[in-house]
Amino acid sequence: MATTHIFTDEEVNANPEVKAVFDDIRATRGTDFVNNIWRALAADPPGLKRTWENVKSLMASEGAIDPKTREMIYIAVSIANSCSYCVHSHTAAAKARGMSDEEHGELMQIVALAASTNHLVTALQVPVDPEFQVM
Amino acid sequence: MATTHIFTDEEVNANPEVKAVFDDIRATRGTDFVNNIWRALAADPPGLKRTWENVKSLMASEGAIDPKTREMIYIAVSIANSCSYCVHSHTAAAKARGMSDEEHGELMQIVALAASTNHLVTALQVPVDPEFQVM
Amino acid sequence: MATTHIFTDEEVNANPEVKAVFDDIRATRGTDFVNNIWRALAADPPGLKRTWENVKSLMASEGAIDPKTREMIYIAVSIANSCSYCVHSHTAAAKARGMSDEEHGELMQIVALAASTNHLVTALQVPVDPEFQVM
Amino acid sequence: MATTHIFTDEEVNANPEVKAVFDDIRATRGTDFVNNIWRALAADPPGLKRTWENVKSLMASEGAIDPKTREMIYIAVSIANSCSYCVHSHTAAAKARGMSDEEHGELMQIVALAASTNHLVTALQVPVDPEFQVM
Amino acid sequence: MATTHIFTDEEVNANPEVKAVFDDIRATRGTDFVNNIWRALAADPPGLKRTWENVKSLMASEGAIDPKTREMIYIAVSIANSCSYCVHSHTAAAKARGMSDEEHGELMQIVALAASTNHLVTALQVPVDPEFQVM
Amino acid sequence: MATTHIFTDEEVNANPEVKAVFDDIRATRGTDFVNNIWRALAADPPGLKRTWENVKSLMASEGAIDPKTREMIYIAVSIANSCSYCVHSHTAAAKARGMSDEEHGELMQIVALAASTNHLVTALQVPVDPEFQVM
Prior knowledge:
homohexamer; mainly alpha; AhpD-like; 2 domains; 7 helices; elongated
């Protein structure tokens, strides 16, 4: 299933704009494997480029949060947004960056707990405590 | 605004079942301040007890993920579930556990990036790569 | 706050198409009070009429599910969709149809539990058991 | 997979109430093809009729917004609500009404951008500027 | 598809902590069939235990809301949270507890109606009527 | 309410990196008014810059979709993601780009209809028709 064509390597190589992004993905990640989201985005070269640049600048750069934790945060958001593909791809990425089975289990329990209190608070329409406000 | 009554300390103390939970919240957290979600849940003592026990066992115990990171994951889920109160309370909790301004900024950018690719993938209905599957 | 004007009774009465819907709301519900969603929809008379007819045909008619339970289902969906106004209005409606404090507490705990297992299942990407499939 | 039976044409024709709706779908759309949502709804004839009448009155009538744009808005909502079937069916419908590949690519980028700023704003809990308020 | 291993009965029996939970699931439900969510959670024994205890205490106990209605509320939340597995499993559970086809049809129409007015209210940013507020 | 400080013009002007983005926002939009999301993002200059560049490249450039329609799509996503601030700001932006009251009413009805069928389809777990698949 897909609403757009999934580009093969041959089709990628036929379009220099697309090929440049794929070359950068491969160089940045140090692997020949390019997963399907990029092959689906290839039908829209400017969208492919914008998306990759955003992903690269945040997920493949130095920063305040370590790479494993970044992927765990990505999983949490992808779960809450019900994105099956994203849960699969970022769980694989987090494991590749060292997430242990124990951390994975704990992550899922925290996400489930957060979801339950998110729904409780919305049910109760709890007013924000003045202590929590910056303004 | 609220769909239930927000219990004052006087009302809390009048119900031994509720008071026991509040005493444990105060002892566990080492502070007298008890925020509004617990005061709203107080109208349903078994629900209050179950919720607190779940929160305590995951957020106030030893585990594989450090306390600051747990709160950052909680924030990520609360954002994706659009829970204003939860974003406020867990941002305050994460800061209290050492989240720096730089980490907060990066967290929000990762959440926003994840949301954008979650939506892109759902738009494209990208099939899961066999490489990402455990089964 | 609002992105459209909230119609007063005077403004409602000045538009026969809008007035006819408001008359029907008042007659069907047996009260003069008309809440803000209808006053906000009044700027779009065909939308007002379509929305009211859908609500009336499902929520104010005989059917297989009793009126109190219908409102409790409505609350559950409104919580999951993070609609503050809807949680307020349907909690009031459920109480008016006999929802007890105990039922309200239990409803919120079930919603919170469902949210937590919804997120867990999405995290785990659990395959559907053949036993659950109709086709 | 499905939680209800998907009606075949033979089963549709056996129920006059269901057949009447299917005849109207075919006449309105000018095609014999009736997609699975209607075949799944056929188990509940009043629900089938209500849903079709709502869809027909908004999507197959004259109005202020052109048919292609309506379908593009439908896709945007279906993405944000994580409805795989709906993304597939309305992407096909939008293409049938003239959505170009360039428009499709741009639509997906706008949806992704909106999702990212939606999450950022919720993270930041930005107060609404007085300039944006109608009331 | 799955992001974790789905435990077979043999693997379950090899871990006493996991086996104890499975024994309790079987005894509580009065059936040997244990569905996939528990087999996926088995990789994280404390998470498995916590999740089952929460489900058992709310869904398999006496309370103010009858078992069939609880499952219908669970379905409503699972739909709004886009959890395919959960919709399948709780639709099966509700049918096992007596939900009729008519009730199922009506439930789906109420959920769909609630979703439509949830979105309308969010679009209109309707202010909460003072009549609906508890505080 | 806010989880970060909302920068005043004086504070913006004190940071050259932030000031440069604000200058570009003002020049691009042709107005001195800069709304609160940018003032909240100012605490994280790289995040502010990345967000503005994404918004500018998609919403303030030539493209296949006209500016008014882009804003209407943005509203649709913001409604489905329950972002109150975003609904306010993009409704104002769409009106400024020529959205009529009739178009606004129709947009909201389409969003509400899409939400209702999104939920119906998820409830029914309708299989995707082969006719809708690209692959």
